[in-house]
Amino acid sequence: MRLDLSSIEDYVANHLRLFILSVFGLVIFVGIIAVSVFFIAVRGAEQTMVPDVTGKELTQALLELQVKELYPRIQLRYSQTSRDRGFIIEQDPRAGTIVKAGRRIRLVVSQGVIINRVENFIGRNVDEVRLDLMALQTASGGPPLLTIREPMMFDFSSERPGTIIAQRPEAGTDISGPLSLEFVVSRGREGQTAIVPQMIGLPFARALELISLTGINFQFNVRDRNPDERGETVVLQNPAVNTTVAFNTPVQITVVRPETITDNEVFGVFRYTIPPNPYPISVRLEAQLPSGELQRLFTVNYIGGEFAVPYKLPVGSVLILSMLNRELHRETVH
Asked: How far apart are CA 232 and CA 265, in angstroms?
């Protein structure tokens, strides 16, 4: 029997073509499956609704998130009442939001109040207490827990002016929520007096230092220099040296202008009216020089009224007046 070579070649060719088509079909099938898996992954996990857990205890909130296949990211924060300690006070995303299962939900858990009892403020300076309460509010991250009721009450006492001599509520009172503190603050001794120091002949900068040390009230004036007078010095004061005056009596101080001054300098008097205070409060005058350097010119406990201070500074300096570390006014000298 004779084999037909052409028939064999046709047979092999047909089977080879079938094999190639099968391999190609398998590749396409695998590709379709891979694309399907990809789109399923992109579509993501099953979606779910965020439950409302605000106001609930942490354990209850965690259980509700677990049912929804959601995971917590917990933050701690002080709050304004001890009653919500351990409870959820904030959540993100908010309740009702549709998210993918497996999403992390931010839960803010209350640590209660940062303090839980009123401390003893008697004997402390009321301005320092005010700053401490501001720092307490910053630490809590919410509305103020303790505030000072205004206007405060003042009375004469042997304590230094500004000292707290009585408080309400009393020390040790439990804090369950925002609380208003009532203070009685010392005005100092009734009829307190001061002795006027010697300032004639002093450079005005030295006179300012002396005023800071003695705490006397003051009012500066400036006039032109006479030929026999040294520039930038005190030439007159009223009342005279060693005079006993009521503590808040202003001492009139006259300073003469400089002998010479450059084109890049300016000599003048800074004036600003400070509202009257029940007792002297710390006031600070600074100068920000054109170089950016901050220079302290004068610090004094001041009762209020016209605050007038001489200065000699480079042109373009900025004068900054502050009271209790709070800026009141600024101006540029020309």
From this structure: 14
Both structure tokens of 23: 């391999």
Give the separation between CA 212 and CA 128, rounded to whole angstroms.
19
CATH of 58-110, one of 3.90.70.10, 3.30.10.20, 3.40.50.720, 3.40.50.970: 3.30.10.20
C-alpha 187, offset from chain centre:
29
Say whether the peptide bond before residue 93 is cis (omega within 30 degrees of 0).
Answer: yes
The answer, yes or no, to whether the previous bond of 151 is cis (omega within 30 of 0) is: yes
pLDDT, tens only, 189-248: 888 888 899 999 999 999 999 998 888 899 999 999 999 999 999 999 999 999 998 878
Task: Please tell me the pTM assigned to this model.
Answer: 0.58
CA distance 268 to 222: 8
